[in-house]
Amino acid sequence: MKCYTTRDVARLLGLSEAQVRSHARVGYLSPDRGPRNAYRFSFQDLVLLRAAGALREARIAPRRIRRALRALARHLPAGRSLSGLRISSEGERIVVRDGADSWHPESGQLLLDFHVAELAGRAAPTARRLARHARRSDDPLTAEQWYSLGVDLESAAPRDARDAYTRAVALDPRHASARVNLGRWLQEDGHPELAAAEYRAALESQPRHPTAAFNLGTALEELGRRAEAIGAYRRALDADDGFADAHFNLARLYEQTGKRAAALRHLKAYRLLSE
Fold first, then answer.
1. CB burial class (10 A; 0-12, 13-18, 19+) of residue 272?
2. Fewest beta carbons within 10 Å, which of 36, 124, 179, 238?
């Protein structure tokens, strides 16, 4: 559920409403349509529009901006907060940094450098207002709509995002992705046991959910249950053999348990996937 109106986006980014609508028609944004066919944007759309503004200021050709932003849109992490990202340039490449990890969604001499957290701070009042409106609405949201709203609130209004996931799960206990995101919040708040219960519930309704299995592994590690964590990471790889972080964590745990051959096998897989 995308909740920022054209007016909200224009105010937050210093654009005219006509400019926002023009960007929406280009193809790298993914707005929904609301009442009277008006655009509704996500926080990810705000991130992309902020990047577009920085590229225009750097006098990058419009065709290259569109190509770069389409690539960036494909690579932004789905289903979780974007506020920890830093988008900048390195030589001729966009560089997106997420904690210790860096990746390059597209080549090109692109001169932009901003913290997404700064944008999230500006968007927070609007996001909180929209969350309050959703809770008080006479037209109740579905579980999927609460989940989508939670994803969109992750960066700008994290407490409201957690509430949205809780409401999604209450309406549909089998909503695996809402369970996973709620579990992540519980884990980040220092409750790995409660988080593990959410991940297990997600796997009950969607047994081949690689993120649920991987996150369960991290929670079990926090609880000191190393053998169970290994099983969870292996389950993540059964669902998605290209899950690089699961290979890395397995390599580390196998090394700790003296299974050097298995550790080397998974470390090799991790390196191949990370190249």
1. exposed
2. 36
The H-assigned helical ranges of the chain are: 6-13, 17-24, 43-57, 62-75, 116-136, 143-153, 158-171, 176-188, 192-205, 210-222, 226-239, 244-256, 260-274
d(CA 253, CA 155): 32
- Structure-token pair, residue 40: 């509704």
Inter-residue contact 148 to 2 (CB < 8 Å): yes
Q: Does the reported pTM lie above 0.90?
A: no
Contact 24, 31 (CB under 8 A): yes
Fold of 175-275: 1.25.40
Output the pLDDT for position 42. Answer: 80
Q: How far apart are CA 76 and CA 266, in angstroms?
A: 26
- Mind listing the pLDDT tens digit for each residue in 168-191? 999 999 999 999 999 998 998 899
256 versus 48: the higher-pLDDT residue is 256
Give the separation between CA 67 and CA 158, rounded to whole angstroms: 31
Domain ranges of the chain: 175-275
How far apart (Å, rounded) are the C-alpha atoms in residues 197 and 268?
32
Of the CA atoms within 13 Å of residue 253, those in its CB half-sphere come to 22
Report yes or no: 264 and 248 within 8 Å, Cβ to Cβ.
no
